[in-house]
């Protein structure tokens, strides 16, 4: 059902550098770059992730309770993505580990404060 997700930024070049480096760790590439934003993904046939400057010209802000979950292919990818996010200046919101019986996840905030989950269903 989900076609794409978008988070806001107030500094597009900084966000672009963060997500290019982050997603390169798991083999995800840019699909589109335009004046207000950038999107990444495997293809347009699968859900994509975008970062954009708000259309209305007002500052981007983080939604309380809003989180984007990135489904990955292994626990190693979860660990790698979380570690890379912290190396790039992201903030830890929950170290990698099991959550329940068959869910392995890690949580971080990007440079704009957007909350991202990296997860693998065992």
Keywords:
alpha/beta, 2,3-Dihydroxybiphenyl 1,2-Dioxygenase, domain 1, four-stranded mixed beta sheet, 8 strands, 21% helix, globular
Summarize the structure.
The chain is an alpha/beta fold and 122 residues long. It has two helices and eight strands; from the N terminus they run E-H-E-E-E-E-H-E-E-E. The protein has one domain (4-55, 66-121): 2,3-Dihydroxybiphenyl 1,2-Dioxygenase, domain 1 (Roll).
Please tell me about this protein's structure.
The protein has one domain (4-55, 66-121): 2,3-Dihydroxybiphenyl 1,2-Dioxygenase, domain 1. The strands form two sheets. A four-stranded mixed beta sheet has the order 1-4-3-2, covered by helices on one side. It has helices spanning 12-24, 75-87, and strands at residues 4-8, 29-34, 37-41, 48-52, 67-71, 91-98, 103-109, 115-121. It is an alpha/beta fold and 122 residues long. Helices cover 21% and strands 39% of the residues. The longest helix is centred in the first third of the chain and has 13 residues, at 12-24. The model has no long low-confidence stretch (mean pLDDT 95). The protein has two helices and eight strands. A hairpin with a 5-residue loop joins strand 7 (103-109) and strand 8 (115-121).
């Amino acid at each position: 059902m989900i076609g794409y997700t978008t988070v806001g930024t107030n500094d597009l070049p900084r966000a672009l550098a963060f997500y290019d480096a982050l997603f390169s760790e798991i083999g995800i590439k840019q699909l589109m770059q335009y004046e207000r934003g950038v999107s990444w993904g495997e293809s347009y046939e699968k859900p994509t992730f975008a970062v954009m400057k708000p259309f209305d010209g007002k500052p981007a802000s983080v939604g309380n309770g809003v989180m984007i979950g990135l489904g990955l292919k292994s626990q190693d990818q979860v660990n790698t993505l979380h570690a890379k996010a912290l190396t790039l200046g992201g903030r830890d919101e929950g170290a990698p580990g099991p959550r329940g019986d068959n869910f392995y996840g890690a949580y971080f905030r990007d440079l704009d404060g957007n909350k991202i989950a990296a997860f693998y269903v065992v």
